[in-house]
Specification:
Elements: H1 2-19, H2 22-44, H3 49-68, H4 72-94, H5 100-105, H6 113-140, H7 143-152, H8 155-171
Helix pairs in contact: 1-2, 1-7, 2-3, 3-4, 4-6, 6-8
């Protein structure tokens, strides 16, 4: 269910683009992301900061796209989002000595401190790479090709997350056995 909810806005964006144009697709993306955010709130009782940032950027860049009738705003939104995420992770870690990934996931994963640091840096680098890739496709390819990239570009996060899973699996620490129980 969660995976379908994650892909809902981009799927609706692509369908609306194929049936209409970039402006119809942008309006559909804005509506779908608002619906997605509301559903996530209903499921979890809260909305993650990244989801709030995504919704905010889609509303701002989508509105600029529609009002100014300029597709470049919606095309550059992913680069801005990825860039912001990279900066936030890197600055929190390197300047403020706060590992945001560990703060968000540390209760669910038991990992050594150096692994958490590596993960934060790897995620920041991934966000930079994705932002640069989106910028490259935006600048050097047609709008149709950029929309196709949005579809097939979902392979990148899936591959990245699988790679992260393999890296994390090597470093997971097991909880010590519970010694309070009587042997059976």
């Amino acid at each position: 269910m969660r995976l379908l909810l994650d892909f809902f806005p981009i799927a609706l964006f692509v369908v609306a683009y194929k049936l209409g144009d970039i402006y119809t697709a942008t309006a559909a993306l804005m509506a779908a992301t608002a619906i997605q955010t509301a559903l996530l709130y209903k499921i979890d009782g809260k909305v993650a900061t990244v989801q709030k940032a995504t919704l905010g950027l889609i509303v701002v860049f989508g509105t600029l796209t529609l009002v100014l009738q300029d597709q470049r705003f919606i095309q550059w939104k992913p680069t801005v989002l990825y860039g912001a995420l990279a900066v936030v992770l890197a600055v929190a870690l390197l300047v403020y000595k706060r590992n945001l990934l560990q703060l968000m996931l540390g209760t669910q994963l038991k990992l050594p401190t150096n692994v958490w640091r590596n993960l934060a840096l790897i995620w920041a680098a991934y966000f930079v790479a994705m932002g640069v890739l989106n910028a490259f496709v935006t600048m050097y390819y047609s709008l149709d090709q950029w929309v196709e990239f949005k579809i097939w570009g979902y392979a990148f996060p899936i591959i990245f997350i699988v790679g992260q899973g393999l890296y994390i699996a090597k470093h997971l620490r097991e909880d010590p056995p519970n010694t309070d129980q009587e042997p059976s």
